[in-house]
Amino acid sequence: MTLPSHAPRGVIEPGRLFVDQHGAVAQLHGVGIQRYDGVFWAWGEDKTHGGTFGGVACYSSPDLATWTSHGHALAVDETIPDLAPGRVVERPKVLRNPAGTYVMLLHVESADYSLARVGWAVADRPQGPYTYVRSERPLGNLSRDIGVFDDDDGTGYLLSEDRDHGLHVYRLSPDYLAVEEIVSTTLTRPGDHPVGPHGYESPTMIKADGLYYLFGSDLTGWSTNDNQYATATSPSGPWSQWRDVAPPGSATYDSQVSVVVPVRGSETTSYVYAGDRWDSRDLYHSAPVWLPMQVQDGRAELVWRDRWTLDPVTGEIA
Q1: With contact defined as beta carbons under 8 Å apart, do 56 and 49 qualify?
Q2: Which of 35, 140, 185, 250 has the smallest CB count inside 10 Å?
Q3: What is the reported pTM?
Q4: Residue 252 is inside which H or E element, if any?
Q5: Is 280 helix (H, G, I), strand (E, B) or coil?
Q6: How confident is the model at residue 164 (pLDDT cuts 50, 70, 90)?
Q7: What domains can you pick out in the chain, each with its CATH number?
Q8: If you write DSSP's letter for every residue of 165-182 in order, what string do you get?
Q9: What is the pLDDT of residues 263-310, one digit of tens each?
Q10: What does the alpha-carbon distance between residue 229 and residue 216 come to, in Å, rounded to a whole number?
Q11: Which residues contact 58 (CB under 8 A, 6 or more apart)?
Q12: Can you say how many angstroms the Cα of residue 255 is from the centroid of all Cα atoms in its chain?
């Protein structure tokens, strides 16, 4: 097997690994990204131990291409069952609640994927260390791949894949530490999958010009597929028909969405798609596929670039 080489620091090359300040492979798998006080913070699955929990790695960057490691924001802990060796902890996503606390949400699993819970941890700074709080099935529902979103009014949302019923959009409590209600549920496509697994996994949501865009990946395991998106004027829907975010048949340039990052600059607002090209035989070296995304007038479309950079001040992509 040929491992993907790493891109030069400061440059994004889809399909090539990022490295940190020490030259180590940045563990940005299943990543969550937020920008706080002009700094991009990223939390990823550390795949040192393959599919089982190796910690939540934390990194910072000025430009989404030059990464500094801050170690583990949430570490393996034998005294906490959800964080013990042998558990599966995926999709770390962080929101800063209105009180200024950093709230990390996680997909918490058993090795056989029967647990299907969402977990919470809290910290007073982006890099942590985070204190684990608990896990649960939100409102009693299965919860596997997750995403998060905080709206302009401070309302927080959890996006959670429940293949028994569909992709749920939950409204969080004002402190983001509990689920209060389901505001909408979407299926893969209207009328699809009347029986059996349905919905989208690895969900993420953005808001652009007053319109909400919900992204997700079909349920094909480690194999990539044509990721989709839908739009609505509210997180409560109704959601539009699902549409391809990349050329049909490209399997989203052989990647799975993890998060879409708005970059608001002095000249423009750009959108960055951060996806994973999973290698189930070597998760540690699974390559990131990060690309510019055009978002306008209800349409979202990935734009392939072999090499590109982001100006975080202007928001422009070159």
Answers
A1: no
A2: 140
A3: 0.96
A4: helix 251-254
A5: coil
A6: confident
A7: 29-302 (2.115.10.20)
A8: TEEEEEEEPTTSSSEEEE
A9: 999 999 999 999 999 999 999 999 999 999 999 999 999 999 999 999
A10: 6
A11: 41, 42, 43, 69, 70, 71, 72, 73, 126, 127, 128
A12: 13
